[in-house]
Amino acid sequence: MDAFTSLTGIAAPLPLANIDTDKIIPARFLKTIKRSGLGVHLFDTLRFRPDGSENPDFVLNREPYRHAEILIAGENFGCGSSREHAPWALLDFGIRCVIAPSFADIFHTNCFKNGILPIALPADICALLMADARLGGNARLSVDLERQVILRPNGESVPFEIDPFRRHLLLHGLDDIGQTMQHAQHIEAFEQRRRTAEPWFPSIVIG
Amino acid sequence: MAEGKPRTLFDKIWDRHVVDRLPDGTCILYIDRHLVHEVTSPQAFEGLRLAGRPVRRPEATIAVVDHNVPTSDRRAGIAEPESRLQVETLERNVAAFGVPYIPLLDARQGIVHIIGPELGLSLPGMTIVCGDSHTSTHGAMGALAFGIGTSEVEHVLATQTLLQKPARNMLVEVGGRLAPGVTAKDLILAIIGRIGTAGGTGHVIEYAGEAIRALDMAGRMSVCNMSIEAGARAGLIAPDETTFAYIEGRPHAPQGAAFAQAVAEWRTLPSDPGAAYDRVVRLDGAEVVPMVTWGTSPEAVLPITGVVPDPASLADPEQRAQRARMLDYMGLTPGQKLTDLAIDVVFIGSCTNSRIEDIRAAAAVVRGRRVAPGVRALVVPGSGLVRQQAEAEGLDRVLLEAGFEWREPGCSMCLGMNPDKLTPGQRCASTSNRNFEGRQGPGGRTHLLSPAMAAAAAVSGHLADVREFA
After folding, report:
1. Which of B62, B177, B322, B368 has its CA 20 to 30 A from that of A190?
2. Do A19 and A105 fall within a single domain?
3. Is the overall model pTM greater than 0.90, yes or no?
């Protein structure tokens, strides 16, 4: 996973609530055994017309938003399925940060596993950032994870909260399996205790 | 752990599974059961391979194919190359890593959330995960069960744990009894309509009250299944005599003395009197009526007696625009009666509603009637064992003679990863769990409802109130 320290880039406004993961990437594109190459299917039904041509009304089909690295969206972003293909598609398109009033839990977790920073801010603050995003290429946002602030085009800074452990992993691009492996002895001891205290959990054998 | 302080069912399961607490409160949470399927696992196994890591506890893991398998005769193999590659990849991975696997042609194959409880793999007090959001289904057993992404699938395969912070506790208490013709599906749709699709975010919902206690296990599973549609991390129902009777004798459940010992332990799981919840919602079960969704979010739901809502009634311009978009997508006009909506397809299946009880409910409505002309109606049992049971009861004959298709088990038209999908503009009465745009096929229009309501729609040719079929 790539580390995330800070990012200055174009922010695309997507003022829809409850953007579900089927909308981020429909199920028919999940028949892959890889993580890469999903950016072409990002927001497929919004981005493309039934004949496959680009929908010129969709924000990511317009300049400068084709180069967006930040997305500003409505509440409950990423609801629905647990598919990690949703953050993979965002990342492959070039989005490294999503700002919204709220996120669905599984999507929120999946972002951190892939070096994408999801930032939840009150709706009125999101509305300001949405207005900034609508200004286009002359109005980049800067997101600084180290200092936990977003710098608006007018110079104002907006602080944000983030889970300290997840911030640490993201800042250093750390593999959390490696982190957990450092506790291997405790996991082993836990398993031994469980085997004695709750011996009825059978091992699965498919005959 | 705060011994002595009254704890919820969630608190108790959580506390028993904490291996370590990190300084910021993040816990290393032990996972008892890991369910694996073909769509969200290939990249996880590939990650293990790249890092040279084994699966820590293959014997706590079970793999099955369900999401993109065809529901026609499968003996000749899978025609669609990408689906076949995903299935073959899973088969290679389970062989290489020693993970127990139920093959496609085994009678026990089925939707992962159907077979877990059915085979006695999902038990009270367990932590259960799967790379699928509807893992919340297993919460009906009194287990803490939740969906995870592929990176977390890899984390569980490698360490048998997850890094998690505890969820908040939410209680949904449903008093009274459901009226005749009203099912668990109607109840959970009513709950989602009440609290909204983000109403449970950050919470685990415990369902309690007389109406919940009166549900059979199939109904409890339908309720917990759709907890994710209310945004919750998981749904939970305290184990009781109904739970224990369901589990006893299932092939992977503890047997004999071990079962008795387990039940004694499981009786300590229900929430303590006076346990605190961060949020409480109360409903009267007797007031719930048959429900159907009209929009492209599960919260866009109304009683079947209702009419399509008018966007103009919303004050907020963005909400108004979003509702207008929903109506446009769904091909609906404000004020239309829901019972006037003609349907093209009926889908009875999915991890929400494909158990034997669901098929019995559909067959009871269909018996002696015919599927309306021009309607395609499918029944996709949740597992091979459900299919066998239904055939032993003659339900397949009832459905086939009425004009239904009787299919092989899988996720099927719930998410259209296999050949079972809607074509653009088709309107479907579906017992599945999501009505998102394009969910059942690009341009498809989904109305979520119970199996009995789906059967009533099939024989009527339009959405219908099943209470008129008594």
Report:
1. B62
2. yes
3. yes
The reported pLDDT for the residue numbered B1 is 47
Q: What is the CATH number of the domain that holds A87?
A: 3.20.19.10
Helices (H) and strands (E) in chain A, counts: 8, 8
Q: Does A30 touch chain B (CB under 8 A)?
A: yes
pLDDT digits (tens, 9 = 90+) for B201-257: 999 999 999 999 999 999 999 999 999 999 999 999 999 999 999 999 999 999 999
- Residue A203: the pLDDT is 87
Helix axes B150-159, A105-112, angle to 10 degrees: 70
- A137 with A116, same domain? yes
Residue A131 confidence class, pLDDT cut points 50, 70, 90: very high
Which of A33, A114, A201 lies at the smallest CB-CB distance from B42?
A33
| Structural domains counted in chain A | 2
Q: Do A30 and B39 touch (CB under 8 A)?
A: yes
Distance from CA of A55 to the nearest CA of B (A): 15
* Lowest mean per-residue pLDDT among A25-34, A191-200, B351-360: A191-200
Examine the domain organization and report whether A200 and A143 are in the same domain: no
User: Measuring CA to CA, which residue among A106, A46, A102, A45 is closest to residue B131?
Assistant: A106
Check whether residue A41 and residue A140 sit in a common domain: yes
Q: Report CB contact under 8 Å: B19, A183.
A: yes
Asked if A84 lies within 8 A of B158 by C-beta distance, the reply is no
- pLDDT digits 0-9 by tens, B49-80: 999 999 999 999 999 999 999 999 999 999 99
Domain residues for the domain of A185 are 175-207
Q: Tell me whether residues B262 and A200 touch, CB distance under 8 A.
A: yes
**A1 lies in some domain:** no
Nearest CB to B85 within list A20, A33, A183: A33
Contact B170, B279 (CB under 8 A): yes
The answer to whether B144 touches B134, Cβ cutoff 8 Å, is: no
> Residue A145: which H helix or E strand, with range?
none
Sheet architecture: strand order including B445-448: B405-406, B376-379, B345-348, B427-430, B445-448
Any B CB within 8 A of A163 CB: yes
The first and second tokens of residue B119, run together, are: 């085979």
The answer, yes or no, to whether ipTM is higher than 0.85 is yes
Same domain, A158 and A78: yes
> pLDDT over 70 for what percent of chain B?
99
Whether chain A has a CB inside 8 Å of the CB on B61: the answer is yes
| A 178-207 residues inside an 8 A Cβ radius of B | 179-181, 183-184, 186-187, 190-191, 194, 198-206
Chain A, residues 56-95, CB within 8 A of chain B, namely 74-76, 79-84, 87
The H-or-E segment that residue B25 falls in is none
Which strands sit side by side in the sheet containing A157-159, from one edge to the other?
Answer: A6-9, A141-144, A149-151, A157-159
Nearest CA in chain B to A163: B24
* A192 in the same domain as A135: no
Q: Check whether residue A135 and residue A186 sit in a common domain.
A: no
Question: Cβ contacts (< 8 Å) between A17 and chain B: which residues?
Answer: 318-319, 322
- The string of DSSP codes covering B113-139 is HHHHHHTT-S-TT-EEEESSGGGGGGG
